[in-house]
UniProtKB/TrEMBL annotation:
Reactions catalysed according to its record: ATP + protein L-histidine = ADP + protein N-phospho-L-histidine
Occurrences of domain Histidine kinase (ranges): 244-446
Top-level taxon in the UniProt lineage: Bacteria
UniProtKB keywords: Kinase, Membrane, Phosphoprotein, Transferase, Transmembrane, Transmembrane helix, Two-component regulatory system
Organism: Bradyrhizobium yuanmingense
Pfam families xrefs: 2CSK_N, HATPase_c, HisKA
GO MF terms held by the record: kinase activity
UniProt-listed InterPro entries: 2CSK_N (IPR013727), HAMP_dom (IPR003660), HATPase_C_sf (IPR036890), HATPase_dom (IPR003594), His_kinase_dom (IPR005467), HisK_dim/P_dom (IPR003661), HisK_dim/P_sf (IPR036097), Sig_transdc_His_kin-like_C (IPR004358)
Name of the protein this chain belongs to: histidine kinase
EC number, as in UniProt: 2.7.13.3
Length: 457
């Protein structure tokens, strides 16, 4: 597709941009044609006023025609009007003719026999016909357009400069008002889009609101909600299957563990016991994943991150010591209240600590550091994480070494799921002296939530 075509298609992806663009085109057309129409109307009104004024003058002149006893007609123009129709003034003219077109009286001196009608082709004048003593006379009055009234001249000639420009700011104000109206009209759509952004694997229960949605958009919103219903049903079946499978595996594993305990001591018994423990760990992690998929956090819920980490370090310390390794809690000693569920936070920190103990070298210490900014850093002295694997390690069932049987690649995926549910971030980097550092960053609880949490404690 040519660049111009792509630019054109991108210009109108926004509904409000499309409406505003079309409205600007309409406003531009109106801004051009409206002054022209007003100018034409003004000229028409001026012409009509001019004709009415001329007709009124003709009627005044008709009243000055008088029939004498001998049947002749006389015309007595008063002194107040003589100057108006004088040659010196040269603005107004009149002719009075009989029914045959002969000139009886005129504002200009001329021969009645040879004078043609001065106003036969004049469109700036008017005429009236009167019956005087049984004789029909026609009075014609006209104005020389070269000497038109100065005020009318100014109005017509300066219309665009003095009046016509007013239409432009008026139309711009109307455009601004229309944009505000458009934005208010589509505000329900923005609200629906914000609501849709909260929909995810853990919040499949959210539906787009249909209140105040424009009638034309309601079918689309309804179709989306119906699609979400079907997706939620599919997610529910998948989660239920995972939870049921994990629960069903727990019982056979417990029975198998009991039977292995009855075997005599030996390498085979220890190997079977290790396999059972690994399988039990996988089943427990599957149950954790199923619970996380259905977790809905209370926005008002808060947890003490320092206390969570202290409990995790205390519970996992025997596991570290058994492998000739150590674990230490560092950082602030004060409570660090964050938005979150303490049980889920424990699972995330526990998985990070367990993963660090697994890969750190013997005789080294895993550090769990709690920051006042709501962060948790877990450091080890292991081989570190390759740059290409830093995103892959958080995927379910991903393992760098497929031949290893001491895990299923679920621990770090649980950490990522807990972080996503808490609108937190998880990152990993290699340390300069060797090893890796995993960092979880949570949102600090506000003062109101902190007060409520401290009151419960």
């Amino acid at each position: 597709m040519p660049a111009a075509g792509r630019a054109g298609s991108l210009t109108f992806k926004s509904l409000i941009s499309r409406i505003v663009f079309l409205h600007i085109v309409a406003v531009a057309m109106v801004a051009i044609f409206l002054p022209l129409v007003l100018f034409w109307l003004l000229n028409s009104e001026i012409d009509q006023l001019h004709r009415d004024a001329m007709r009124a003058q003709a009627e005044v002149l008709a009243e000055r025609i008088v029939a004498q006893p001998d049947g002749t007609l006389t015309f007595n123009l008063p002194d107040s009007l003589k100057g108006l129709y004088s040659d010196a003034y040269g603005r107004y003219q009149f002719d009075i003719r009989d029914a045959d077109g002969r000139l009886l009286f005129s504002s200009h001196r001329r021969s009645a026999a040879t004078a043609p009608s001065r106003f036969s082709d004049t469109v700036s004048g008017a005429s009236v016909t009167r019956d005087v003593a049984g004789k029909t006379v026609r009075i014609q009055v006209a104005e020389d357009l070269a000497h038109r009234d100065v005020i009318i001249d100014d109005i017509v000639s300066n219309f665009f400069r003095r009046v016509g420009w007013i239409t432009v700011p008026i139309l711009l104000v109307l455009l601004a008002i229309d944009i505000i109206i458009f934005r208010r009209a589509i505000a329900p759509l923005w609200k629906a889009s914000q609501e849709a952004s909260n929909i995810g694997p853990a919040r499949t229960d959210i539906r787009l609101p249909t209140e105040q949605i424009p009638r034309e958009i309601v079918p689309l919103v309804t179709a989306v909600n119906q699609a979400l219903d079907r997706l939620e049903a599919g997610f529910r079946v998948q989660r239920q299957f995972t939870a049921d499978a994990a629960h069903q595996l727990r019982t056979p594993l417990a029975i198998l563990r009991t039977r292995i305990e009855t075997l005599g001591d030996g390498a085979e018994r220890q190997a079977l016991h290790a396999d059972i423990e690994a399988m039990s760990r996988i089943v427990a992690q599957l149950l954790e994943i199923a619970e996380l998929d259905t977790l809905v956090l209370d926005p008002r819920e808060a947890a003490d991150l320092r206390a969570v980490c202290a409990e995790v370090v205390g519970s996992i310390a025997p596991f570290a010591i058994a492998q000739r390794k150590d674990i230490a809690l560092k950082g602030t000693d004060a409570p660090v209240l964050i938005h979150g569920n303490s049980e889920m936070l424990q699972r995330a920190v526990f998985n990070l600590a367990e993963n660090a103990i697994k890969f750190t070298a013997e005789g080294t210490t895993v550090e769990v550091e709690v920051g006042e900014d709501g962060s948790v850093r877990v450091r080890d002295s292991g081989p570190g994480i390759a740059e290409a694997e830093r995103e892959l390690i958080f995927q379910r069932f991903w393992r760098a070494d497929r031949r290893r049987s001491d895990g299923a690649g679920l621990g770090l995926s649980i950490v990522r799921a807990v972080a996503d549910d808490h609108v937190a971030t998880v990152a990993v980097q290699n340390l300069p002296g060797g090893g890796a550092e995993f960092t979880l960053r949570f949102r600090l609880a506000d003062k109101v939530t902190m007060g409520e949490e401290l009151a419960r404690q």
